[in-house]
Amino acid sequence: MKASRRVLARHIASELQAGTSRKMLLDGLAAYIVTHRLQSQLELIVADIAANLAAFGRVEATVTTARPLDKALRDELVAYVKKIENAKVVTLDEQVDTSILGGVIIEMPNKRFDASVRTKLKRLKNA
Amino acid sequence: MNPVLQFGAEQASSGLGALGLDVQAFLFQLITFVIVLLILRKFVYQRLVDTLETRRKAVVDSLDNAKEAAVALEKSNEKAAELLNEAKKEAADIVTLAKKEASKVAEEAEEKASKKAEHLIEQAEARIHSDIAAARLSLQSEMVGLVAAATEKVIEQKLDAKQDAKLIKEALRETS
């Protein structure tokens, strides 16, 4: 039987919150998506899972910087996300992209914070 | 013998005859004259008189007509003169009016042309201002683009890890 996207996301988030193995859950989710041909909805499913995890106080944020993060900066970013999302646990997915020149882009389940030098220059050009 | 002839013979030998007057011939001529007179009166005189009368009347009528025609002509001349005067006056009025109208039309045309010229000048000025503003904007945009490009190059070369970390921390502080 095929569950709705939201039900599926809620289930995965609940299992992650309960401490079920992340790898096992992701494998199961991948199999489910392939079986039910939900590949086109993959991004939406991931976003729904993130939103459900945020509701449990668990936030996964993608952080993009021009250089790899050091510990102090990472801690500061975690604290920032915790404060903004009112989260208990924050997991950072760190990405390095030199094209942003400097600064940071933080993508949270419900918000996006772009303080990259590239975007600032773009705004300056469009002003 | 005819008593008349007899009387004549007697008279010839008496008083009148003694004067050498032939009474008989005289009487004959008298009678002939009377007859001729009667004939003329009967057939000629009346027609002649009628003809003359007709001619006289015609002449009188002609004279009367001529007088009337003369009076009428005089009246016509007076009326023509009056009409001519009126026509001249009307013509003068028309000319005056036409001059006024022409002057008015010329003034209106001048005013219209003046307004149009002013409008064209205003439009041209507005267009010039608009073009200047657009040129300024374009120049500003170009300058900003150049500045941004230059800044980008400088940042690529000068922004080190320490400065980048500082930049990130400031950004987080500003929004939290």
Keywords:
heterodimer, A: 127 residues, alpha+beta, 2 domains, four-stranded mixed β-sheet, 5 helices, 53% helix, globular, B: 176 residues, mainly alpha, 4 helices, rod-shaped
Give a verbal description of the structure.
The complex is a heterodimer of chains A (127) and B (176). Chain A is α+β, with helices and mostly antiparallel strands. Chain A is 53% helix and 20% strand. Chain A folds into 2 domains: 1-56, no CATH class; 58-127, no CATH class. Chain A has 5 helices and 4 strands. Chain A has a 4-stranded mixed β-sheet. In chain A, helix 1 crosses helix 3. The mean pLDDT of chain A is 88. With 176 residues, chain B is mostly helical. Chain B is 94% helix and 0% strand. Chain B starts with a helix and ends with a helix. The mean pLDDT of chain B is 87. Classes of the chains: A alpha+beta (127), B mainly alpha (176). Chain A binds chain B through residues 65-67, 70, 72-73, 76-77, 80, 83-84, 101-104, 113, 115, 117, 121, 124-125, 127, and chain B through 141, 144-145, 147-148, 151-152, 155-156, 159, 161, 163-165, 167-169, 171-172, 175-176.
Radius of gyration of chain B: 67 Å
Question: How many distinct domains of chain A?
Answer: 2
> Could you give the order of the helices and strands of chain A?
HHHEHEEEH
List low-pLDDT spans of chain B: none
Total count of helical runs of at least 4 residues of chain A: 5
**Structural class of the helices, strands and pairings of chain A?**
alpha+beta
Largest interface: A-B, 22 and 21 residues
Shape of chain B: rod-shaped
| Number of strand elements of chain A | 4
Could you say how many structural domains of chain B there are in total? 1
Helical percentage of chain B: over 70%
Which whole number gives the mean pLDDT of chain A? 88
What portion of residues of chain A is helical? 40-55%
Radius of gyration of chain A: 17 Å
Q: What's the assembly state of these chains?
A: heterodimer
Low-confidence stretches of chain A: none
Helix and strand composition category of chain B: mainly alpha
Shape of chain A: globular
Strand content of chain B: under 5%
